[in-house]
Design brief:
By secondary structure, the protein is α+β, with helices and mostly antiparallel strands. It has six helices and ten strands; from the N terminus they run H-E-E-E-E-H-H-E-E-E-E-H-H-E-E-H. Helix 4 crosses helix 5. The termini are far apart.
């Protein structure tokens, strides 16, 4: 009878972390940043059917990189959590902080469990405040760690290099067109700029009068914003 192989807990955690990081690094990058009127999400996504950026609740957005089926499960769980809390208490009780804490507990439990593999995902929960000073961007890693990002966050791919390029031209009060162009330039690197068809862009827009602040920017609207003129965009989702 063969004896089971002993693996030190430290080594086991390291192996699980390395496994998750490699999976995340293979994913195409996502940028989430503040701009003058809210928070924008810019993702390299060549699929027209599968979204990496979504709405969770009235003022809360979600972005993810990694394995699609895993972060889609997290997105759905987040929507259910938010709907249940908003229905049971009040819509104002649904917050980005509360959602980030719920995700942290779930990801941490999965990572620590030896019964299943760690999730190969990294996610961002962003909440639009009543003012720019109260905007929140939370970045969550595969092991449930939570980071409170002050200005912008980059996930997936060569995130460190992309963040360096974006930081050179970043400003909290930049118009939406400038913010999107900066994000696209960072994602594109030194080569050609990514096309409209290979981008997924959405915003949490403080200027919207509706309770739901999330809208997608695509097609002619996105092409206009990526052009030379920083014109305002109306409509959208």
């Amino acid at each position: 009878m063969s004896m089971p192989v002993y693996v030190a807990p430290e080594q086991q955690m390291k192996d699980r972390a390395d496994f998750a990081r490699k999976g995340i690094a293979r994913g195409r990058s996502v940028v989430v940043m503040r701009y003058a009127d809210g928070i924008c999400f810019v993702a390299e996504n060549r699929s027209q059917a599968l979204h990496k950026v979504s709405e969770i609740y009235d003022r809360i957005g979600f972005a993810a990189v990694g394995r699609y089926n895993e972060f889609e499960n997290l997105r759905i769980a987040g929507i259910r959590h938010a709907d249940m809390r908003g229905y049971s208490y009040d819509r104002a009780d649904v917050t980005g902080r509360g959602l980030a804490n719920a995700y942290a507990q779930l990801l941490g439990t999965i990572f620590s469990s030896g019964a299943e593999k760690p999730y190969e995902v990294e996610i961002i929960v962003a909440e639009l405040g009543q003012t720019a000073a109260t905007d929140q961007i939370y970045r969550l890693t595969y092991d449930g760690s939570v980071g409170d990002e002050e200005h912008f966050a980059v996930m997936g791919g060569n995130a460190d290099e992309i963040a360096k390029r974006i930081a050179q031209h970043y400003a909290d009060d930049a118009p939406l067109a400038d913010a999107i162009r900066n994000a696209v330039a960072g994602l594109s690197g030194e080569g050609e700029r990514l096309s409209v068809e290979s981008l997924e862009v959405a915003v949490l827009d403080r200027t919207r009068t509706q309770p739901r602040k999330f809208r997608r920017v695509r097609g002619p609207q996105l092409a206009q914003l990526l052009g030379a003129v920083a014109a305002p965009v109306e409509g959208g989702e």
